[in-house]
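A brief tutorial aside. Many learners find it easier to grasp structure tokens once they have seen a single protein encoded end to end. The record that follows does exactly this for CUL9 protein. Read the sequence first, then the structure, and try to relate runs of similar tokens to stretches of the chain.
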Amino acid sequence: LRLLPRQRYLRAERAEVSALQRKRNVLCCLITRVLKVEKQLHIDDLVFRVIDACQKGELGPGLQFLSFRCHSVDVLSCVLHLLNQGYLRRQEERPHVLEY
């Protein structure tokens, strides 16, 4: 029996998954922080505020050193995740407005 070394692509794939999870966690925290202040916000305004904060590096206390590109698809994916988890909700009469 001969032991083979671990494949490099497996390590690279795990690193990419870990980076994506960290990015999603940061975006979810940022979305929550924006909505805690605003209480309710149109989904388009929320997406633009989060993207703007990412571009400016205004991610919050302790996270200023993190700077990454985020796209509207990333933010919307996190919004859907937070809606499914019950952290956010939509208004009955105006489903495009999100509340914390």
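Self-check: Helices lie at 8-38, 43-56, 72-85. If you spotted this yourself, you are ready for the next section.
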